[in-house]
Write a structure and sequence with these properties.
Layout: E1 6-9, E2 13-17, E3 23-28, E4 31-34, E5 39-42, H1 46-63, E6 70-73, E7 78-82, E8 85-86, E9 89-96, H2 100-105, E10 112-122, E11 131-132, H3 134-139, H4 145-168, E12 171-178, E13 180-183, E14 186-189, E15 198-202, H5 212-215, H6 221-232
Helix pairs in contact: 1-6
Length: 237
């Protein structure tokens, strides 16, 4: 499968067309961003680590019966995926309070959320990815009620699978975001799952091992990603 025209360049990945209209190639770059893309830096090894991490997670989800866009890993930093008609609504699960939820509601960071909370955000960097609801999503034509219901169902299924996976590595899956798209009339998990799009803490020390290391200038960002990968069994070489 050969890369053809560049279709889209995001904050951390580039998307290329292939000779098959149903398939795309994702290139995981070393770019790392925060503040809705206003702060961007290059972190060595990031593209390789996130590509391998994502491939591992997508296979675990497929094994659990959750359809994803992942087809196969092509190289250290490239992967073949299904071409989805992406829905511009991010689904966020929170198992513990962190990030914007703490700022919005004045909660204590690390407070357990039982049951987990589920939120929707409109994917638009210029607007700061504002929080929305199902009614707005339907009214503005971003998704149908049936699609939103399926997205929520799948997000909770992903949470069940991955909480157990990270727990086995003595890690806490604090929260994460997912993006979905339509492939031949089916709702399919798209984008990526890596420490860029979730919060992961050490179970005992609560050490942050995710993108918050970059956001909060804690240092050793990729080392944190690699530690998570090693603890859940991601092959990095």
């Amino acid at each position: 499968m050969q890369k053809q025209q560049l279709l889209y360049k995001g904050k951390a990945k580039s998307v290329y067309e292939t000779e098959d209209n149903d398939l795309l190639i994702l290139h995981f770059r070393d770019d790392t961003s925060a503040l809705d893309g206003k702060r961007i830096e290059q972190l060595a090894r990031k593209g390789v680590v996130n590509n391998r991490f994502n491939a591992f997670i997508m296979q675990k989800l497929a094994d659990a019966g959750i359809e994803t866009h992942f087809e196969k890993q092509l190289s250290d930093d490239e992967v073949l995926v299904k071409r989805l008609d992406m829905i511009p609504v991010e689904c966020v699960i929170r198992n513990f309070a962190a990030g914007s939820l703490v700022r919005r509601l004045g909660l204590e960071e690390g407070q357990a959320l039982t049951p987990p909370t589920y939120e929707l955000f409109y994917k638009d960097d210029a607007l700061g990815d504002p929080m929305v609801n199902e009614s707005l999503s339907v009214t503005l034509g971003w998704a149908t009620e049936a699609q939103l219901t399926k997205m929520q169902e799948l997000t909770y299924q992903v949470n069940d699978v991955l909480k157990a996976l990270f727990d086995a590595g003595d890690l806490i899956l604090v929260d994460f975001k997912l993006e979905f798209g339509v492939f031949h009339d089916r709702i399919v998990l798209g984008d990526e799952f890596s420490p860029d799009g979730c919060r992961i803490w050490d179970k005992t020390t609560k050490k942050k091992l995710d993108k918050d290391r970059f956001r909060q200038s804690l240092g050793d960002v990729i080392e944190g990603y690699e530690e998570v990968a090693q603890r859940i069994g991601v092959p990095l070489s």
